[in-house]
Write a structure and sequence with these properties.
- The relative contact order is 0.10.
- The chain is flat.
- It is mainly α.
- The chain is 61% helix and 0% strand.
- Helix 1 packs across helix 2 and helix 2 runs antiparallel to helix 3.
């Protein structure tokens, strides 16, 4: 995990981002979010990421729904 975190942090630095905001966890979160947006089932995502509960998976993908599943959009705003 430490080696993966170091690689992610270095990639963030090379992209001009703050390495402190990224880590190995970012990869897992990004995969879960991308898979969700791509239409993968919760079950398939959980099997791949190792999540044990739907509640924890929801924590990972909630940002993906920020602009697609919100009251303002439904109200036509």
């Amino acid at each position: 995990p430490k080696v993966v975190a170091a690689i992610v942090k270095e990639a963030a630095r090379l992209l001009g981002r703050d390495p402190a905001e990224f880590g190995a966890h970012s990869l897992r979160s990004g995969l879960a979010t991308s898979a969700y947006l791509g239409g993968a089932s919760d079950r398939a995502i959980m099997r791949t990421t190792g999540h044990k509960s739907r509640e924890m998976l929801d924590e990972y993908i909630r940002e993906a729904e920020l602009f697609t599943d919100n009251a303002a959009k439904a109200a036509g705003l």
